[in-house]
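Input for the complex:
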Amino acid sequence: MAANMNPKKNPMPSQPPEVRAHNFQEVATGYTKDTAIDEAMRCLGCKHMPCVSGCPVNIHIPAFIAKIKEGEFEEAYQIIAQSSSLPAVCGRVCPQENQCEKHCVRGIKGEPVGIGRLERFVADWHNTYVQDPPMRPEPNGYKVAVIGAGPAGLACAGDLAKKGYQVTIFEALHTPGGVLVYGIPEFRLPKSIVRREVDALRALGGEIQTNVVVGKTITTDELLHEMGFDAVFIGSGAGLPRFMGIPGEFLKGVYSANEYLTRSNLMRAYQENSDTPIIRAKRVAVVGGGNVAMDAARTALRLGAEKVYIVYRRSMEELPARYEEVEHAMEEGVEMLLLTNPTEILGYNNPEDKRDPRNGFVTGLRCVKMELGEPDERGRRTPVEIPDSEITVDVDAVIMAIGTSPNPLIKNTTSGLEVNARGGIVVTEETGATSMERVYAGGDAVTGAATVILAMGAGKTAASAIDMYLQGLEK
Amino acid sequence: MYKIVYKKSLNAAVTMMDIQAPLVAKKAQPGQFIILRVDENGERIPLTIAGYNRNEGTVRIIFQIVGSTTAKLNQKSEGESIADFVGPLGTPTHTEGLKKVCIVGGGVGCAIALPVAQKLHDMGCEVHAIIGFRNKDLLILEDEFKAASDRLTIMTDDGSYGKQGVVTVPLKEAIEAGENYDQVIAIGPLIMMKFVVATTKPYGVKTIVSMNPIMIDGTGMCGGCRLTVGGETKFACVDGPDFDGFAVDFDEAMQRSAIYRDFEKHAYEKTCNLFSKEVE
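Predicted:
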């Protein structure tokens, strides 16, 4: 078969921007069978496999793409499944442009192979046409507790359950999925995909106990010493949202991105029958430039906002969000206020009437313009304020998407668990082992806010280390 | 699902329930709270723990029917279940070393003040309780407070029971009469706590208040429950709900508590209409 030498990727079929900006259905609709094969033909099947080195979980990329070329989609899926626990999720939310696709040889003289799109196609094909046979491995007699049902915890639990471990996940919220359900919106990752992954884990014999906050309802020490777990994996995720510390952050209409997205995603405030309120602002400013900021901005549009701004203190080049997300957001009408830094959130105040119901609601965001100065020690150019460049943007909601600090609950209630200065759990990178024997950790609880695939990879690493440790005990 | 094993109406607007939740009951301490969801589409609401029975594995909640969610919760009967019940969240009320305390409760806040009073009383601390209500019909937990305090003062706004007036009147009298409280613990509406603090501050009597802001996850993730305490941003779910009353910015907290007033009013009316239709 001759390779397809088209320099461009097959475009991802998507809902038109003017339509999708007003609904919560998935933006990208996915490749068809023919497009997938056509795109797979662009892969040169390089012997040295540069793409694999860019994948945090080392998926055998040329091998699965070769199976797509042959139309053997299920075999392609099985190849991915050897390395990844959540292909339908990662095919959608992985920053492939900085990972596998960054190293693709086709990217030198054109666009790289759409590896992420192909991964998604294969996973969706499997989910549509293949019923996984119920496979319950023989129990090996060991019990492992997993804290948090997000990407790290689900991956760790899945790998261990497949090996015959009796796994129990303890999840603080009422729905398993972690950031996949409370953070990433339906239009980017349909919740049915997450439910499927969770169901698959249950089919393997994994148990999920929701509404259990480890550090409060039970402690890590109890899991190990009273409840008979042989090992514990901590995948408790990110913690408290950061605010800027500028005046006006307590006004009505100021949200953290975590709160705004949790209301809309987890609590489904966007649906009519939900009891959870959310402010349906007409003009919204989202502060920050990451994927979370893009998610919040695009959610605001879908909740009926007429004007949505991204306010970011550096330039387009430094924007940490995925290019695809920024492009989608801009297509949908989100306006980028770059090199702009908020200094104050303004609120309504009727001095004549203290009981005026409009009092205390956001009316605007005062900002200064910035320019990029000298590079700092990490090589990032520091934004510097331009004197007398103040602007005021009229908005009725401000969403802060400037990161999180690690959750203190487990650290404060687990004696002997070492954490670093930023509050992240200290682990040995190769194994995920913490300072406590039989306790492993991974994901945002270790790294601070990072990606789904890194968390999933950390969960898999820890699963394999836990397996080696417990099997080693027998010898 | 979490079963309602006992339900009792304390007055027209306040209901008490014991919920089967053994893991929560095992750890619960006075001052901590739970988050519940009535059904699949329900919102998550925080309620401070009003009591617990570790042997029976039950947790007591006492709530006022103020909005759609509490109205739906109140529609549930003994033997029925609610979808979610998670806790115990927040830090327990500090009681160590206290010898003489005045507990000030207002309205349904008395339900939360009671376990704190009971714990202090059980440890041999001298407990003076001042509890206030709008009128006699809204009075709750009188006998329980009598049993858990060395001196009980009941106030009503209209004088229909106990003495007429607000809780700060007898509090001020007691302090001026030379009652040397180690601490005042105030639990009730924000406006009441604000005035309790205004009363104790001139005398320098340490005052702890229990904050109940808007919250979603309750585990330190969403940041919705943030408050300004001593000029710093604090999160009621992990740093509280108890705070040093002298340091809390009450005006800000009161303003924030009204974010969804319109939404809640609308939802409450919708829920009430739904229930009245069911009755027809």
